[in-house]
């Protein structure tokens, strides 16, 4: 039981690290693309999250 619990916690920690890594990678990537492609006054941290809604409206 203790070994199973330890393994479960290990898996959760690994998944958490992967999610954080992906989040940081995407945010830095979108931050750099926003810096290069858009005007300075259009820089918003969550612009890459909803590109379709802003384009369609």
Automatic annotation (TrEMBL):
<keyword id="KW-1133">Transmembrane helix</keyword>
<keyword id="KW-0812">Transmembrane</keyword>
<protein>
    <submittedName>
        <fullName>Uncharacterized protein</fullName>
    </submittedName>
</protein>
<feature type="transmembrane region" description="Helical">
    <location>
        <begin position="9"/>
        <end position="26"/>
    </location>
</feature>
<feature type="region of interest" description="Disordered">
    <location>
        <begin position="38"/>
        <end position="57"/>
    </location>
</feature>
<keyword id="KW-0472">Membrane</keyword>
